[in-house]
Design a protein that fits this description.
By secondary structure, the chain is an alpha/beta fold. It contains 15 helices and 16 strands.
């Protein structure tokens, strides 16, 4: 049976199991962004070697290139990208609204649909809640997200309230189209994709609370944190994320979209969030920033004290810029503890050399290191109870 089963919930240490058509997942888990059906510079075998369990593709980008018809002919996005694990498709709402909010000449949003120009060739397109769901069914993903109105967090409250209203109306339309597609395609319960709605409301607790309550009344498998998890100054919205998690039912999946840095994932997991995705591990890797667990790290301990968003966290990792001159003569392995042979075989000096020459192999190795780090982080979070006294 497709769905989510919460195995343990002591508020701070949720543990669950997701069953999808392409495999099972234990929470918490992290999904690297395979936005256009690939993780830049890596094959799916590389991503598997980093012990990645699931990935995120993007409806907006795949709709524009290579197009829904081609992916349909390929047998779905799993076959197209040669990935046999679970996939989640983002609705594309964040991308299309970011496009329009940055430049009003790129499109228009109304209650019926979004009209926009392709950033690739300027061609005109329309995206409705129904069309977004239809595209995601054609992709053949295991988890899909409702189209929502995703304005910046710093918008005035009255404009954010309108975005919440529109997101709720669109969520209802997405759910109706989702049910129609299940019936039309004769998809049985054990194979149905999970459907997520997105909680909007900026940094206003009442808007987030009311949005979550209305979405729960419609009924979804999970609920995501809408808009960016930081404010306009890059400050992490800890209080808002904490409160939003509390508005989502305990037996539903909680998806912290766009989170994030290792410490923010740690903090969000302790708030009750189950799922994470972000470009950070691969994007930072391509720019020469590598993540490593500190040698002194022996596992997380369960937090003590009052329930709430934590402001302090253990210094469990270090981020190192391999382009720094100090690594030019560092002949120690990139990561002697890695399960990936190349990261044990090649030295930091060699990786530094690759980055100085802008050799793509360097970007690949750094990305693999970071993906492996993030996947180990998930396993360490699952073990918190075992390591607690």
């Amino acid at each position: 049976m497709s769905g989510f089963k919460l195995k343990s919930n002591n508020k701070r240490l949720r543990e669950g199991r997701i069953t999808t058509a392409h495999g099972k997942l234990s929470t918490p888990f992290f999904m690297p962004d395979a936005t256009r059906a690939f993780v830049k510079g890596n094959t799916t075998d590389d991503v598997k070697r980093a012990q990645t369990e699931a990935m995120v593709v993007n409806t907006f980008h795949l709709y524009l290139q290579p197009g829904r018809e081609l992916i349909k002919k390929a047998g779905g996005v799993h076959a197209f990208m040669d990935w046999n694990g679970p996939l989640l498709s983002d609705s594309g709402g964040f991308q299309v609204f970011s496009l329009i909010h940055r430049s009003s000449g790129m499109g228009k949003i109304d209650d019926e649909k979004v009209s926009f120009k392709s950033p690739i060739d300027g061609s005109k397109h329309e995206l409705t809640p129904e069309k977004s769901i239809q595209i995601q069914f054609e992709l053949g993903v295991d988890m899909m997200v409702c189209l929502d109105d995703c304005p910046p967090n710093d918008w005035p409250k009255d404009k954010l309230a309108l975005a919440v209203k529109r997101s709720l109306e669109w969520a209802a339309r997405c759910k109706a189209e989702y049910l129609r597609q299940l019936k039309r395609r004769k998809i049985e319960e054990s194979k149905r994709p999970l459907l997520f709605a997105v909680v909007q409301g900026g940094d206003y607790e009442d808007l987030r609370r009311d949005c979550a309550a209305a979405l729960v009344a419609i009924g979804f498998d999970g609920y995501g944190f809408g808009a960016r998890p930081v404010d306009k100054d890059g400050i992490f919205l800890a209080d808002t994320l904490f409160k939003t998690a509390s508005f989502i039912p305990e037996n539903s999946l909680r998806f912290a979209l766009g989170v994030g840095t290792p410490e923010d994932i740690y903090r969000c997991y302790l708030m009750g969030w189950d799922m994470f995705d972000c470009v950070i591990p691969t994007r930072e890797g391509r720019h020469g920033k590598l993540f490593f667990f500190n040698e002194s790290f022996k596992g997380f301990k369960a937090p003590t004290g009052k329930q709430g968003p934590i402001s302090k966290f253990p210094k469990f990792y270090a981020a190192k810029n391999i382009s720094n001159a100090a690594y030019a003569t560092d002949f120690s392995p990139i990561n002697p503890c890695s399960d990936i042979a190349e990261l044990r075989q090649y030295s930091k000096a060699f990786l530094h050399h690759l980055f100085r020459l802008k050799e793509p192999l360097g970007q690949k190795l750094a990305s693999l290191n970071n993906l492996e780090f993030y996947n180990r982080l998930m396993r360490e979070l699952r073990k918190i109870k075992q390591n607690s006294v």
